[in-house]
Amino acid sequence: MSQHLTRALLLMEQSRPEQALAEILLHLASFPNDPLALSQKARCLADLERFDEATAAAQEAVQNAPDWAESHHVLAIVWMLRRRYREAQAAIDEAIRLNPDDADYFALQALIFSNRRKWSDSLSAAERGLEIDPEHAECNNLRAMMLTQLGRREEAGRTIDATLARDPDNAFTHANQGWALLQQGQPQRALSHFRESLRIDPTCEFSRQGIVEALKARNLIYRLMLNYVFWMSRLPGQVQLGVLLFGLFGYRYLVDLAAKRPDWQLWIVPVIIAYIAFALMTWIADPLFNLLLRLDKDGRHALSAEQIQGANALGVCLTLALASLAGYFGLGSEQALSFAFLFGIGLIPVSAIWRCQLGWPRTTMLVFTLVFFASGLLVHAPLPEIALEPLGSLHLATIYIAPWLANGLQFARVTR
């Protein structure tokens, strides 16, 4: 191993990928087919988000050393960072076939399964890693996360407690404990673990997100909404869709029933109102409470730039809706009521924009939201020369499509 490669490995341990890459390139100038150097080059490039080059380097390492498990392991890491989970799965499976005695490989396999929402498979992979190394921190953390997803919270708690006892300075374990406590409805205890995690590793995004959620969860309403989100996240995709459809058709049934049986409206209407309020809160709770966090001395520093942008956009839309509603009650203006309805419904697509991943999902949601507001403003504006009928049809279509499109796009993932 050359001095350049030795220095590069040290720089990588210090999280300095750019300097490490320079040393690796100097090494590769003398040893162009070295699979170890090519694999480390791939990892540096991936850390620098130069993913096409990283993939090419990892694939070259595999070509030069097809029977070396580590080259396949690094290729799996690159594919996973690119969110190409099927390719990552194939690569890590090959690494495990070549070397079934490395717990790190099973940890990565568990993480890939987790990203594919295959909780049971992820748990099995983590437990296979723990058979090799019972104290492996990442496998223990992933096992705890999957046990939580599968509703086995007591086992998850014991696993995290044991992992923390062995390594109390592991930032990811503290973050994992924080999220577990958050799911148990203990935001204050969760906050202490998130803060400890960030003390150990100030760059831990998992903990920063946890602090934001824990701060918001101090509010009872948000805590209830968060419990609903956690519950839904543990359900398979088909079951989640079934829950949403059940709510929609149940709502439509109650509306029709109220129209047919006026004598039952006293009991049905409150249920309908409660459902509408709940459905709306599932969409706007996250950015709405982010908006409230901006007034909190701790919360304002925890929010990311995207969360602040989403909160600001929701705040503008909510202000316009309330102002229009005040105009209706104060002036008796029917047009003001129309605008109140427009901006009220608009809270759904506006809140979804920053929940969509950056790339085509967010762009699609942004364009749709602009079409929604443009068509709505033209329909409600007193402009008789404009052909209102096609605009009205377009706007009506956007109202019906908004929640479904937003729901689909926020789960869309952009490969890199």
Please give a structural write-up.
- The chain is mainly alpha-helical.
- The protein folds into 2 domains: 3-179, Alpha Horseshoe (Serine Threonine Protein Phosphatase 5, Tetratricopeptide repeat); 227-409, no CATH class.
- 80% of the residues lie in helices and 0% in strands.
- The chain is built from 21 helices and no strands.
- The protein has helices spanning 3-13, 17-30, 35-47, 51-64, 69-81, 85-98, 103-115, 119-132, 137-149, 153-166, 171-183, 187-200, 205-216, 220-233, 237-260, 265-293, 299-302, 305-331, 334-353, 360-380, 388-409.
- Helix 1 runs antiparallel to helix 2 (17-30), helix 16 crosses helix 19 and helix 20 (360-380) runs antiparallel to helix 21.
- It is elongated, with a radius of gyration of 26 Å.
- The mean pLDDT is 89.
Task: Output the keywords.
416 residues, mainly alpha, elongated
Secondary-structure map:
Elements: H1 3-13, H2 17-30, H3 35-47, H4 51-64, H5 69-81, H6 85-98, H7 103-115, H8 119-132, H9 137-149, H10 153-166, H11 171-183, H12 187-200, H13 205-216, H14 220-233, H15 237-260, H16 265-293, H17 299-302, H18 305-331, H19 334-353, H20 360-380, H21 388-409
Helix pairs in contact: 1-2, 2-3, 3-4, 3-5, 4-5, 5-6, 6-7, 7-8, 7-9, 8-9, 9-10, 9-11, 10-11, 11-12, 11-13, 12-13, 15-16, 16-18, 16-19, 18-19, 19-20, 19-21, 20-21
In total, the number of strands is: 0
Low-confidence stretches: none
| Principal-axes shape call | elongated
Largest sheet: none
Structure in a nutshell:
This protein has 416 residues and is mainly alpha-helical. It has 21 helices and no strands.
